[in-house]
Amino acid sequence: MSLRFAVLGVLSSMPMTGYDMMRYFEESVGTLWPSSPAQTYQELRKMEGEGLIAGTLAPRGRRAEKRIYELTDAGREALELGTLEPYGYPNERDGFRLRFCYFELLPYEVARAHLNAHIAHYKLQIEQLKARIEGIERCRSPLLQARLRLHPPEAHEAIIAYRAQALGAQVLLAQAEITWARRSLHLVAKLESNSGSRKQRKGAA
Amino acid sequence: MSLRFAVLGVLSSMPMTGYDMMRYFEESVGTLWPSSPAQTYQELRKMEGEGLIAGTLAPRGRRAEKRIYELTDAGREALELGTLEPYGYPNERDGFRLRFCYFELLPYEVARAHLNAHIAHYKLQIEQLKARIEGIERCRSPLLQARLRLHPPEAHEAIIAYRAQALGAQVLLAQAEITWARRSLHLVAKLESNSGSRKQRKGAA
DNA sequence: GTAGTCATGTAAGAGGTTACATGATTAG
DNA sequence: CTAATCATGTAACCTCTTACATGACTAC
Known about the structure:
Chain A is mainly alpha-helical and 205 residues long. Chain A has eight helices and two strands; from the N terminus they run H-H-H-E-E-H-H-H-H-H.
């Protein structure tokens, strides 16, 4: 249901084609709910069938056509309902930690390399998120600008703040990942020195 | 590939039936990679077909039978390879934050309720995780005990520490969630007091 | 003309959820 | 005898990914 929610949310700012939607997805909610072209187009067709959105054919050049979607009243209702309903927390999966459970199978060097890659991954993510947050706060996205135009000025602060705060969550989580990985590097070092001194004791004995 | 990895990991401690596996999943890596009976049994059959695990029929009571799976050499290799390979970080999805992006549609009261539910959710999760971590550190699980028996005593510390540290990650992340939700409650309060003198929105235009 | 962007799809398959179906064994 | 547990599945469905396919339009 979340892709559907994302589509409703994006369309609530302005009508657009499936192609536009894919671009705006990346710009706005893309970090929160990525979607491929294949899935986006399919979902749009399905939602049109269910009356949540309405597509109208528009000319494009002389021979070609494009389909511009906009929210219906039912779609607007579904969007509100989606925010109103309590969120059903799905099972979270954590492939990295699953593998980490078996790091005892690895040489310390490889374990360290994996953890350093983890840190690099989330550092990069934080940079990207901060750039996005700045983009939101400065209203650089045409999608966000369109959304603001739909609302009175006194609502603008909330719209922008909620968006930025949503990405702020991802920053906090990424920072926690880095903290954890650093601690895990300490753990690896400790395990290594323990096994090192053992070897020394054995060698000495 | 992660369910497969989880199966290999669990089976590397001891041979067992699909039914046992489901129970041990919940006990050990269940928080990291939950799986349903349907999926578990299917995956086991598939992995048997690919020679990663081998099932032997064993009698159960007088008429019934059960299938006990164990790792093959290929399976052991696959497990090692799975830890050795760099982890391919998947796209992460965040349904809660996606909804949060549109909290401006909600009355402040409902926004607060959602955030409080968020805090409650992760507080509960932290409690459960801490209980699990204690269980690991005290070696309460028969699965972990079996695993330790397979290894020399000087390896025990690492095995236990990695497991506990894996769940420790989830604790850190859950704490970050709570921190974020508290900050978001402050944000809601601020927005509300800003709009305090103004008339608040009601109804759809 | 050709490269890049705009625009829309289909098909196959992996991975996961939910619901249902079946029957034996064990503990009380 | 009954209920809980042990044990194994099947079927339908949803979501998401990957790869492929098509063709018009625009700027150079």
